[in-house]
């Protein structure tokens, strides 16, 4: 499955992340075709809170966890 990501903090401003069936994934710069549109979502981090607006699943709030030490 492919994900097109636009955002600050990534390796590139626009990238394509591809997840393979075996669970591995890799990133490529820009938009790599072909693209099969399934959903569009917008994700914003405010501190530990993540706000997600998704055309398919609607509005969600979640809290990020700190890594255990």
Write a short abstract of this structure.
The protein has 69 residues and is mainly β.
Structural class: mainly beta
Count of helical regions: 0
Dominant shape: globular
The strand line-up of the biggest sheet is 1-2-3
Strand segment count: 6
Q: Give the C-alpha Rg.
A: 14 Å
Question: Could you name the ranges where pLDDT drops below 50 across 5 or more consecutive residues?
Answer: none
What is the arithmetic mean of pLDDT?
84
Relative helix content: under 10%
What can you tell me about this protein's structure?
- By secondary structure, the chain is mainly β.
- It has strands spanning 2-6, 14-19, 25-29, 41-46, 49-54, 58-63.
- The chain has a 3-stranded antiparallel β-sheet, with no helix packed on it. A 3-stranded antiparallel β-sheet has the order 4-5-6, with no helix packed on it.
- The model has no long low-confidence stretch (mean pLDDT 84).
């Amino acid at each position: 499955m492919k994900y097109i990501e636009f955002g600050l903090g990534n390796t590139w401003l626009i990238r394509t992340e591809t997840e393979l069936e075996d669970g591995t994934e890799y990133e490529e710069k820009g938009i790599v075709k072909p693209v099969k549109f399934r959903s569009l979502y917008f994700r914003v981090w405010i501190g530990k809170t993540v706000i997600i607006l998704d055309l398919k699943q609607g509005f969600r709030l979640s809290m990020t966890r700190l890594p255990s030490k």
